[in-house]
Design brief:
- The chain is an alpha+beta fold.
- The chain contains six helices and eight strands, in the order ββββααααβββαβα.
- It has helices spanning 38-57, 60-76, 78-89, 99-114, 149-162, 177-182; strands spanning 5-7, 10-12, 18-22, 29-34, 120-125, 128-132, 141-142, 169-170.
- The strands form four sheets. Strands 1-2 form a two-stranded antiparallel sheet.
- Strand 7, helix 5 (149-162) and strand 8 (169-170) form a beta-alpha-beta unit.
- Helix 2 (60-76) packs antiparallel against helix 4.
- It is globular and about 70 Å long.
């Protein structure tokens, strides 16, 4: 099965061709994944930067609804996610059956954070106070490790998006590219 990137809302193939994802169980080819060039990465970063004003200006309740829909979508695809994680990591499906539930719960946790992330007031002296305001910092690059790509992708992207840091460009790891990318597509 040939996969693709989504950059700026459009499906695209990597401009450096593709690479095969090999099953650690039996050395069969699981997927052909696009191979990103530096230009592809720059396109993804530029798309994330263009998307930022929309995300920044979106209300917390609307963002929370998107997060909850994201979690529901993962819940609805638990079996597919478990099968992909199992195939790409070479572990039994029963051993990763709870992965989708775990990441869906993590997304729901950060959905709650979205509507309560107002900053902090820190008082140090009687005559003044300091206010910490959460502001967007920039596009982040998330590069999940090989040993838990789907969980690590969510652990990086969900809090970044919930904290209203800019939209995120993710580089799925070569060893398990589909499972680290399918959680955020």
């Amino acid at each position: 099965m040939k996969q693709h990137f989504i950059i700026d809302g459009k499906k695209t193939q990597g401009s450096k061709g593709s690479f095969d994802v090999i099953s650690p169980r039996d050395q069969s080819i699981l997927h052909a994944m696009p191979n990103a060039s530096e230009a592809d990465v720059l396109d993804a970063v530029e798309a994330a930067q263009r998307a930022f004003p929309l995300w920044r200006n979106m209300g917390g309740v609307e963002k929370q609804k998107l997060f909850l829909a994201w979690a529901d979508l993962i819940d609805a695809n638990r079996d597919m996610i478990a099968a992909e994680v199992s195939a790409e990591m070479g572990v039994l499906k029963d051993d990763v059956a709870g992965t989708a539930a775990y990441i869906a719960d993590m997304i729901r946790y950060y959905a709650g954070f979205i509507v309560t992330n107002y900053g902090d007031v820190l008082s140090f002296e009687d005559d003044h106070m300091n206010v910490v305001v959460n502001e967007p910092l920039g596009v982040i690059a998330a590069m999940p490790p090989w040993n838990s790509p789907i969980e690590s992708t969510i652990q990086k992207c969900a809090p970044a998006l919930a904290a209203t840091i800019r939209p995120t460009a993710v580089d799925p790891v070569n060893e398990m590219p589909l499972t680290s990318g399918c959680s955020i597509s």
